[in-house]
UniProtKB/TrEMBL annotation:
<dbReference type="InterPro" id="IPR003265">
    <property type="entry name" value="HhH-GPD_domain"/>
</dbReference>
<dbReference type="InterPro" id="IPR051912">
    <property type="entry name" value="Alkylbase_DNA_Glycosylase/TA"/>
</dbReference>
<dbReference type="GO" id="GO:0032131">
    <property type="term" value="F:alkylated DNA binding"/>
</dbReference>
<dbReference type="GO" id="GO:0006307">
    <property type="term" value="P:DNA alkylation repair"/>
</dbReference>
<feature type="domain" description="HhH-GPD">
    <location>
        <begin position="56"/>
        <end position="211"/>
    </location>
</feature>
<dbReference type="GO" id="GO:0008725">
    <property type="term" value="F:DNA-3-methyladenine glycosylase activity"/>
</dbReference>
<dbReference type="Pfam" id="PF00730">
    <property type="entry name" value="HhH-GPD"/>
</dbReference>
<keyword id="KW-0227">DNA damage</keyword>
<comment type="similarity">
    <text>Belongs to the alkylbase DNA glycosidase AlkA family.</text>
</comment>
<dbReference type="GO" id="GO:0043916">
    <property type="term" value="F:DNA-7-methylguanine glycosylase activity"/>
</dbReference>
<dbReference type="GO" id="GO:0006285">
    <property type="term" value="P:base-excision repair, AP site formation"/>
</dbReference>
<dbReference type="GO" id="GO:0032993">
    <property type="term" value="C:protein-DNA complex"/>
</dbReference>
<protein>
    <recommendedName>
        <fullName>DNA-3-methyladenine glycosylase II</fullName>
        <ecNumber>3.2.2.21</ecNumber>
    </recommendedName>
</protein>
<dbReference type="InterPro" id="IPR011257">
    <property type="entry name" value="DNA_glycosylase"/>
</dbReference>
<keyword id="KW-0234">DNA repair</keyword>
Amino acid sequence: MTQPDLPAEGKPDYWDEACRHLVKKDRILRRIIPRYPGMSLQSRGDAFETLARSIVGQQISTKAAAAVWARVAQGVAAGAAVTPSAVLALQTDALRALGLSQRKAEYLRDLAHHFDQGLLNVQDWPQLEDEAIIAQLVAVRGIGRWTAEMFLMFHMLRPNVLPLDDAGLIQGISRNYFSGEPVTRSDAREVAQAWKPYRTVATWYMWRSLAEPQAY
């Protein structure tokens, strides 16, 4: 999982403190963080559209996902915001005609149904713990733990998410802490102990570091 580098306008209010903490606590991040001045995680879109895009983009390339989403957005909302009611106004076959698989079309409608019927307590999410939000999200067809964790990171800007199923995180830890050797979830969790309570920020820098030349 990667995100384009973004300017730090609108960065999370904890970002600078998190960087100071990580530089102090972790020798690897002490080297990596200064290489990306003026960059930070930034929130993406509204809740429904963020999750809808995640479903559309599953198991296809970033370029293909962007193309399919553009067709979906045009077909569902004629270029306006994609809303639950707009999605529910189209049947599965109509969504498939926009480039979605049968399964993704069904997933998208199920997500829209959850939002439309108030089955997700969106208004309560700011007060809920991360795991409580994940539990609600994974009840929606097509949303697994990784998608829920990306939502917590990129939409809700939660500071302490550790997405152990993310290949980029594992690759970053392998590269920076184990000289490229294979890394288990247990290894990654142990490395990330020093990152608390800012594991989201450290993960973001692991992703950034993958664009750097290898040192070994």
